[in-house]
């Protein structure tokens, strides 16, 4: 009985190389050295005759800009904010948000979110939705019943 592996892309249109040929070239790397690390894949892709070559941006200026955009996304998704409390303030509320309250491509800072009523309400709706999703996801864990009961 023959086994055949068919490769495809999860998200279409991102890579130009034929997924089956790309898979076969990566498999060749694995057969040669036992595994395919990113460095070996890029090294093989430098050869313009490979299918892998089509999957990379070889314009260094453009690639560098796209990498920085990716880093910006990673940066904003990893920042953690905490509201500092002085003696005159109310009980502290730790927050971890750098979020989007609408369908735009940008991020909003916590200070603006707490000052603009519509953005605060959007954040609150998002929090309720995430709490509900948490409740659904972990409903089978009886140890969390006392917490899950608090979520509408």
How many domains in all?
2
Beta-strand residue fraction: under 5%
| Number of H- or I-type helical stretches | 6
Terminus-to-terminus distance = 53 Å
Mean pLDDT: 81
User: Largest sheet, described in full?
Assistant: none
State the share of residues found in helices, binned by percent. Answer: 40-55%
- Overall structural class, as computed from helix and strand content, comes to mainly alpha
Low-pLDDT stretches: none
- Please state the overall shape, judged from the principal axes of the Cα atoms: extended
Order of secondary-structure elements: HHHHHH
Radius of gyration: 24 Å
Number of strands: 0
Structure explained in plain terms:
There is one protein chain. The protein has 2 domains: 56 residues, no CATH class; 70 residues, no CATH class. The protein is built from 6 helices and no strands. It is extended and about 65 Å long. The mean pLDDT is 81.
Q: How would the blueprint of this fold be written?
A:
Elements: H1 19-33, H2 38-45, H3 60-78, H4 110-115, H5 117-137, H6 145-148
Quick overview of this protein structure:
The protein is an all-alpha fold and 152 residues long.
């Amino acid at each position: 009985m023959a086994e055949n592996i068919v490769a495809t892309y999860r998200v279409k249109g991102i890579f130009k190389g034929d997924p089956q040929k790309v898979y076969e070239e990566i498999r060749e790397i694995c057969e040669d050295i036992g595994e395919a690390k990113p460095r070996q894949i890029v090294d093989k892709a430098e050869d313009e005759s490979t299918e892998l070559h089509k999957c990379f941006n070889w314009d260094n200026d453009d690639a560098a800009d796209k990498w920085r955009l990716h880093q910006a996304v990673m940066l904003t998704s990893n920042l953690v904010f905490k509201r500092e409390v002085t003696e005159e303030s109310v009980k502290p509320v730790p927050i971890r948000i750098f979020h989007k309250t609408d369908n735009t491509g940008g991020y909003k800072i916590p200070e603006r979110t707490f000052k603009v009523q519509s953005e605060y309400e959007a954040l609150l709706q998002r929090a309720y939705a995430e709490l509900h999703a948490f409740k659904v996801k972990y409903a089978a864990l009886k140890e969390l019943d006392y917490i899950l009961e608090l979520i509408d």
